[in-house]
Amino acid sequence: MSQPLPELQDSMIDEATFRQYVEDLHHAAKVLDVRLRGHDVARAQDSTIDLTRGFVMFEGKDVGGMQIKYLYEGLEWWDTLMWVGENIRLIRIAHDWDAYAL
Minimal CA–CA distance to 88: which of 59, 67, 62, 68? Predict the structure, then answer.
């Protein structure tokens, strides 16, 4: 019997929402992994980096995107941030690994 796929959220966020997102991650989540995406330099770098450094590189548009995996309220969240022109796209999915246990 197959399990239902987790719900995917996809939205564009403004600068104020992005700033609040950064604060929330720093103070309310346990960050597991941060990876840069999008530009040639970032593609070659496939190891995790510090969250603050990742945000600095993302905001400076040194990378096209970043993926952040973190724990919050008992779930593992995977967020992908991408620049779309001058806007930020946030794709989010929550994994409840206990629900997938056989």
Answer: 59
Q: What is the pLDDT of residues 52-99, one digit of tens each?
A: 999 999 999 989 999 999 999 989 999 999 999 889 999 999 988 776
Q: Is 84 exposed, middle or buried (0-12, 13-18, 19+ CB in 10 A)?
A: exposed
**Residue-range domain boundaries for the chain:** 8-96
DSSP structure string for 52-64: HHHHHHHHTTSSS
3-state helix vs strand vs coil in the chain, percent to 5: 30, 40, 30
Is residue 29 within 8 A of residue 44, CB to CB? The reply is no
The tokens describing 13, both together, are 């966020």
**Please, are residues 31 and 70 in contact by the beta-carbon 8 Å criterion?**
yes
* Separation of alpha carbons 68 and 76, rounded Å: 10
pTM for this entry:
0.83
